[in-house]
Fold this sequence. Notes:
Blueprint: H1 5-14, E1 22-25, H2 42-47, E2 55-59, E3 65-68, H3 73-83, E4 86-89, H4 94-97, E5 106-109, H5 116-127, E6 132-135, H6 139-143, E7 157-158, H7 165-173, E8 180-184, H8 186-193, E9 195-196, E10 209-213, E11 218-221, H9 229-237, E12 240-243, E13 252-255, H10 262-270, E14 274-277, H11 282-287, H12 291-320, H13 327-338, E15 344-347, E16 352-355, E17 378-384, E18 386-388, E19 391-392, E20 395-401, H14 406-423, E21 426-428, H15 433-445, E22 456-458, E23 467-472, E24 485-488, E25 491-494, E26 498-501, E27 504-510, E28 517-522, H16 540-557, H17 564-573, H18 577-581
Amino acid sequence: xxxDHLGRIRSxxxxxxxxxxxxxxxxxxxxxxxxxxxxxxxxAHLTGFTGSAGTLLLRRDAPHVLWTDSRYxxxxxxxxxxxxxxxxxxxxxxxxxxxxxxxxLAVGFDPETLSEAEVRRLEAAxxxxxxxxxxxxxxxxxxxTENRPAEVxxxxxxxxxxxxxxxxxxxxxxTMEEGESTLVxxxxxxxxxxxxxxxxxxxxTPHVRLWVPKTGDVLxxxxxxxxxxxxxxxxxxxxxxxxxxxxxxxxxxxxxxxRLPASLWRDLARAGFTLCETSSPVPLWMxxxxxxxxxxxxxxxxxxxxxxxxxxxxxxxxxxxxxPLTEWDAAQMLVEERAKAEGYLCESFDPIVAFGPNAALPxxxxxxxxxAPLEGNGLLLVDSGAHSxxxxxxxxxxxxxxxxxxxxxxxxTRVLQGMLALARARFPKxxxxxxxxxxxxxxxxxxxxxxxxxxxxxxxxxxxxxxGPLRISPRxxxxxxxxxxxxxEPGYYAAGRFGIRWENTxxxxxxxxxxxxxxxxxxxxxxxxxxxxxxxxLTDEEIRQIDAFHDRVREALLTRPLSERGRAWLLRExxxxxxxxx
Length: 582
């Protein structure tokens, strides 16, 4: 049954005040979620475009406009053509692109879907073209009443604290003056309290907030029905009570406009709080992992490597037996195997299993109806990870199906060299992510290759797999502190032919040989499949680096329970490359 998306758009616009000329539909919710819950996915409901990024401008007297990034150009243009929408590939911040399509208009928005800071930026940008941004409270609640998925508020649970909540709260309180308090968002709340929930797929961050005063009990703003009596008692013993906004005494409230939705910001102001704007230090604290988080993350990556080895060995066996398998079949096999891992909670994102030309799309979505068969000759890209009680993982590997082309193998080798170059980098304290990004790109640049995404992102601990604020990219001014964990994932994408990405997790450590310098420790334990790159293109230094990596992970993985076929796969893939060249 076909869906009348234009009818849905007309119906939604009809619920808005007549004074509104246009309405801005953003990819956002009150919680700042990385993965948008279905309950807030209005753009997908109205247009059928389901990409993870995109902004829709609905206009009463002109064609509607859809912006998204280059990952989704094909899917977005198809939807725009079907619905008569104008498509723009977003190359700049929304505040730079929106005014061109909203000149002179009164543009409505739902204040639950934008942060207070973003609202201010958009207001200023629209003023330049004689347009206005107007809050329409509860626009989604009143305008989307049919076929709207329910909002999920799953039971809260607690992981074993890697560091006492009291220590983390004391650190925050040290930044406050007497009489001050602060309200922190979901990710920070999870970090302080060690609470998790399955409120949205592929993420364990609960949709709750935490009120922290300079002294006295902390207040967890959550529906009490989400907690067991035992969990309520456990938190209470640590000075954390369950309550609501109504329980917070009025006074000076430190608040970050980048991290609170405009609706809540304005509700707090109306309720009599004195809002003192501040930039929260907590995200940077979260990016620096404590020793116990590092220890557990290593175990999580080791267990994840074991699961992926078992998966790949089984996949190879089934393909060799002539079974007709697709990308989707392989993805489901991987999820099934990973779910057996110690402390497994959920995937950290939907697995990207992309074969041949599909891998040329950096964020290809593996789906049963469009999955390519794993047959013929080519490279298989597998980007996947999980949340567990031990930590969060994110790893990408390349695998050979049949005999890949020499061109694809050469490109795969250059990308692998980029990953290896960053892993062995040594750099002075105070080096930015911009400089380190160039280190990973250099081996590709020598071959005339490059890629359009950043090289690395922060990785959370048993919560967001893409953790801010630290990044390694051409636009990352961040300085990397010791014990930060980040991805190392250069790539190359030949449109319509093949795509390459290799990815490990790195930890920033003091350089053991040079005072005042830093280095990286590779935490990932999954071997590199030797048929997926051309070892003849590697330098002697790179061969030694790979062999040392394989020696380490082989020794560690042989202590884990592996099947006979999994053990055979491990021993085969970690044979010394140096011997092959002698």
